[in-house]
Design goal:
Structural class: alpha+beta
Distance between the termini: 56 Å
Strand content: 35-45%
Strand order of the largest sheet: 36-37-39-38-40-41-42-43
Number of helices: 13
Number of strands: 43
Radius of gyration: 27 Å
Helix content: 10-25%
């Protein structure tokens, strides 16, 4: 018996040893998604703050299920696919859903079709829970279907016009009638607003539903951009849309208010000079809306209080900055007419209490660290909840603090990356914790940070990772030569030998306010880097000047000179690495995507004596080719700052190229147009420089779908093996 036990133990030990020596393969990442963590998604907090719903899988395919926050018990099944099929006679898959205010009705989004980064259109169904009555909202597909606060109507956008459907009379009314593709948009956004101001729906019910505030875009004078779509037919088609590049005309944007009862629309801010309306926000008063306006350089922001019935506007608050102001949704309107607001006016992003007259009543948070997300305020109990980089720029923690700036508490003290999703009323929050060298976990906590129950601990993922050889990601700082210590991480081979010299691949993004050096789990690129580490590479990423979570001055030093300081810092980091005994200084490469592709292209040219190889995926190659809201925010216009655009354009440095260079782009990239790569090709050919190129037909900026990602990373690996 003893010998049998010993034999079994030896067998288990052998199996365990074998299991823990598996190498990561590309198919594990991009075919089987073995390292993708589970989480809690699609959660809708209900109005009572003690229950939530999610879209769950069941025997029929899916079900909207109601749970209790505190216990996780199922309280009700709101709707199932089988029920919906019985009611409609059709097999319907739900992509998203939304309740009305009293949660007696549902809007169901089906057959959803993405448009750009945020926008989509769907076939919507309206479902009454009590009567089980269901019907299509309207003909065709709609955008942004939204309940009236009282549940009496639904507003939506179709074919660039805004509509209201009266649920009582089952009639539909057009609020606007002049919508036209590539000309007039009502209630939705043009391409550049959606991409750079980061929202999509452009109409908003007032608190009591007596008014709708909405945007109108006149795109007539905006230049058109066209892309060939190759598809599978004999002849390609063209996709044409309005895209304002740096220095080019914008849409003429106006704000309007529709009186639902009187069926009249007024335009507001008629006599006010502005270029952009980045936000429209209703206050707690049904007849008072706040409209943000900005100048073209985006260094002046005005908040206007507008009377919804008369259109009369009053300047409430003004923010200015020597460089630029970035827009967020952090504003909260309090019952007394004051607001909560975030600003980097003292050098770091912090929370302020602003009076009804626009004056600072209190700076609530303070210190040499940035508030990175404002979750909201529990006005009844006087608590504000936010996320910050106070512990370290590479980490995030969730805090609460009172209106007086006192009794600050770190609700998520575990080191790493912490996020929160609060219930209505802030009684509970879903806490997601992640760290570079451990699996993500999801826990329900109360408003004081106490754990209520575990929601997802990713034990299966933990077991999967235990089967593979995984190197620890090491965090460090690297000097840039100008007295700045830059945050960085490094992944070494599992069998790293400090007396051996390894080639290095650097990964860069580097754009304004971004970060790649985060103490958080990554089931995709990090696992790809493990493949490279197993092949004998060291992988390093460095957050250069201009990146986020280190204050205003660190972030905005790149103003008017995008690419200059960032490239200097990446070159300095590469030189520092080359001086390390364990690095082969003659074999340092760099790669990046989008802004990172721009950076890798600059590094292989301006840093030609430092970098042996570079990969640029979907790169900007001259900021003159990119959209005006993003580019002019950081660069001013080409007319005002021609040297800033040209001095750090990779196109103008191709003669310096010495190393190996791979260019990759999707032909249907609506964001960073393939034009950037074509112009780079032209410059390289004119300079008689050899390079490698790959174009993915009909793929957008993300370059994904089917085998695409697998193919891309396989191509990158082969390129590195041959050239680094």
């Amino acid at each position: 018996m003893r010998s049998i036990l010993i034999g079994l133990l030896m067998a288990v030990t052998t199996l365990s040893t074998v299991a823990q020596t598996k190498n990561v393969e590309l198919k594990d990442i991009w075919w089987f998604y073995r390292f993708y963590p589970k989480g809690v998604s699609g959660l809708h907090s209900m109005s009572d703050g003690t229950h939530y719903t999610t879209l769950e899988k069941d025997k029929s395919g899916w079900a909207i299920v109601k749970f209790a926050y505190a216990t996780g018990d199922v309280m009700d099944t709101v709707l199932t696919r089988s029920t919906l099929e019985k009611l409609t006679g059709e097999s319907i898959n739900i992509d998203a859903y939304d309740f009305n205010n009293d949660e007696s009705q549902l809007l169901l989004a089906t057959e959803t079709e993405p448009i750009y980064r945020h926008s989509s259109k769907s076939v919507f169904y309206h479902y009454e829970l009590g009567s089980s009555k269901i019907e299509k909202l309207s003909e065709g597909k709609q955008m942004y279907a939204s309940f009236h606060p009282g549940g009496k109507m639904i507003a939506f956008v179709r074919d660039n016009d805004l509509y209201i459907k009266d649920l009582g009379s089952n009639t539909e009314k057009a609020v606007t009638t002049d919508g036209e593709k590539n000309k007039i948009i009502n209630g939705a956004l043009d391409w550049v607003y959606e991409e750079e101001f980061s929202f999509d729906q452009a109409f908003y019910w007032s608190p009591d539903g007596n008014y709708i505030a909405f945007y109108r875009f006149d795109e007539t004078e905006v230049p058109e951009f066209s892309m060939d779509i190759y598809g599978k037919d004999l002849y390609p088609t063209q996709y044409v849309f309005k895209y304002p590049k740096a220095g080019e005309p914008n849409s003429k944007v106006t704000a309007h208010i529709y009186d639902v009862k009187d069926e009249k629309t007024i335009q507001v801010l008629n006599d006010i000079q502005y270029e952009y309306i980045p936000r429209i926000k209703w206050t707690q008063k049904d007849d008072q809306v706040v409209v943000y306006t900005m100048n073209r350089l985006q260094n002046e922001l005005n908040l206007w209080k507008v009377n919804a019935s008369t259109g009369q506007a009053e300047l409430w608050m003004k923010e200015t900055d020597p460089a630029y102001i970035e827009i967020n949704d952090d504003i909260r309107f309090l019952k007394d007419g004051s607001i909560i607001w975030t600003s980097d006016r003292d050098g770091y992003q912090h929370i302020y209490h602003i009076s009804g007259s626009g004056k600072v009543m209190k700076q609530i948070t303070d210190g040499k660290w940035d508030v990175t997300e404002f979750y909201g305020i529990d006005e009844e109990n006087g608590w504000l909840y936010y996320q910050s980089a106070e512990v370290h720029p590479t980490q995030r923690h969730v805090y609460r603090i009172n209106l007086k700036g006192k009794k600050k508490t770190n609700l998520t003290p575990d080191l790493g990356w912490n996020t929160a999703n609060f219930s209505q009323g802030f009684k509970y929050f879903i806490h997601e914790h992640s760290a570079a060298n451990s699996v993500p976990t999801t826990v329900l906590r109360d408003s004081e940070g106490e754990s209520i129950r575990e929601l997802e601990m990713n034990e299966d993922l933990r077991a999967t990772l235990d089967e593979y050889q995984i190197s620890k990601k090491e965090f460090m700082t690297i000097p840039n030569g100008d007295g700045v210590e830059m945050n960085a991480w490094m992944i070494k081979p599992v069998d790293f030998d400090k007396d051996k010299a390894y080639p290095v691949l650097m990964f860069v993004y580097g754009g304004p306010g971004s970060q790649t050096v985060e103490n958080s789990y990554d089931g995709f690129n990090d696992k790809y880097y493990q493949i490279l580490a197993d092949k004998g590479y060291i992988i390093v990423s460095v957050d250069n000047r201009g990146t986020g979570a280190r204050g205003r001055d660190f972030r905005k030093v790149t103003y008017k000179e995008l690419g200059k300081y960032e490239t200097e810092d990446q070159i300095a980091a590469a030189k520092w690495l080359a001086d390390q005994k364990y690095v082969d200084g003659n074999r340092i490469g760099i790669w990046g995507w989008s802004y990172g592709g721009y950076m890798s292209s600059l590094c292989i040219t301006k840093g030609a004596d430092v970098f042996k190889a570079a990969i640029a995926v979907a790169p900007v190659t001259n900021w003159r080719f990119y959209d005006n809201i993003y580019t002019e925010r950081y660069m001013q216009t080409p007319e005002q700052n021609a040297s800033g655009y040209d001095d750090n354009s990779p196109i103008n440095h191709v003669k310096k190229l010495k190393g190996s260079y791979l260019l990759v782009h999707g032909s249907a990239d609506d964001n960073v147009h393939v034009q950037n790569t074509m112009r780079m090709i032209d410059a390289l050919v004119n300079a008689n420089k050899q390079f490698d190129l790959f174009i993915y037909p009909d793929k957008n900026h993300g370059i994904y779908g089917g085998n695409t990602r697998y193919h891309l990373y396989d191509k990158m690996t082969r390129f590195l093996e041959e050239n680094l």
